[in-house]
Amino acid sequence: MYYLLFTFYLAIACTFLPRLPFIKNAQLGYTTILILFLIKVAAGILLGWMSQAFYPQGNDYWGLNIAGWNEYEFLARNPTGFFADIFRSNYDHGYAGFFSSIDSYWNDLKNTLVGKLLAVCNIFSRGNYYINSLFFNCFGFLGHVALFRVFNNLYTNKKWPVIIGTFLLPSALYFSSGIHKDLLVFTFVGLFCYALYFSMRCLRPLYIFTILVSFIALILFRNFVAVALVPATIAWIACIKMRSRPIIIFTTVYLAAWLLVWSVQLIKPSFQPLRVIAQKQKDFFELPVATSQLETHHLEPTMKSFIVNAPQALNHSLLRPYLWEDKTVFLFPLALELFIYQLLFLLMLFFYNRNMRNRDPFNLFCIFFACSLLLFIGYIVPNTGSIVRYRSIYLPILFTPVLCLVDWQKIWSLFQIRNKNI
Length: 422
Fold this sequence. Notes:
- Helix 12 crosses helix 13 (246-267) and helix 15 (303-318) crosses helix 17 (362-380).
- The termini are far apart.
- This protein has 20 helices and no strands.
- The protein has two domains: 1-221, no CATH class; 264-422, no CATH class.
- Helix content is 73%, strand content 0%.
- It is mainly α.
């Protein structure tokens, strides 16, 4: 029965998704859209199967699906209570601890909302993981399309590098295709970037609505991503309005943001941003030691501690896992993927396509936004497995420009010259 249901819903998705104006207007072509969507669905199936096959004792993806079935039963039994439950805190301190990782209404709300979404999906899927994965990936596909439309507008005549960067980066595709917050965060980041980028060219109510909905969703599902968007967005808008040198504006805005954090740290003892980050790291340390655990220095809520530990944080988030690390067999393909990205970055430096030089501040938005999140991840997460997952959903906005800026024609001509000489 589930096979028939899955096939039925897949056929409906393949029929109607490519006809949605948002997707159709991406100018990818019906066949390409269909292939990319089926790859996305296949990645979701693979993630679900591998999670169950290698972690049958329990994993986030299947655990959320089970929670979704419980929410479905709650919905059938008490519809009013089902919706009221979203706003109910189970803690004596009520709704305090907005940035806390444990014993917090806001931290629990992320999984609560995913469970509520799955409850609605279960009306049609009857609790089947793979059908729910299909439903989630119908929505998640919009995030890829949104980023494609931005980069395809930014880098004309670079359609296939943009397709590879926005749809087919292995870890980004894999981790953004499961029943998890990662899929939702990736999608809302993509939609936010799309709406903000095109609103800079033509301000429309739909763009404003998309920006607001995406930002609120990110606050609810992963609030530190929403926080990271604020200085990047301010700097981007300032570049458009002031028409000055983007690198100076971005650097100034981020220095001002650090000064603001430091000022709040000194002036308002009741809320110390650095203490919040240090506490998040401490919460990770209190989890069971992972197979891919990294030796990580303990953060102190001082500016000195954050500066001293920045190189290690960047090493963990940008360079790990190394190819020679053998903590777990699953890390090798991820290490190989990261090594390829590092080679691509070097290729861009040595074979920079000057014809594709683009001074649009969106490039700096991508760099500053993604790198600030990678720094944050490197600070708080002490194991490679989690770092890889958290990092993956920001790779498209970092490496799509790299793929577009490599002069592939020059590299190919060098190979042709060498072959002739041989």
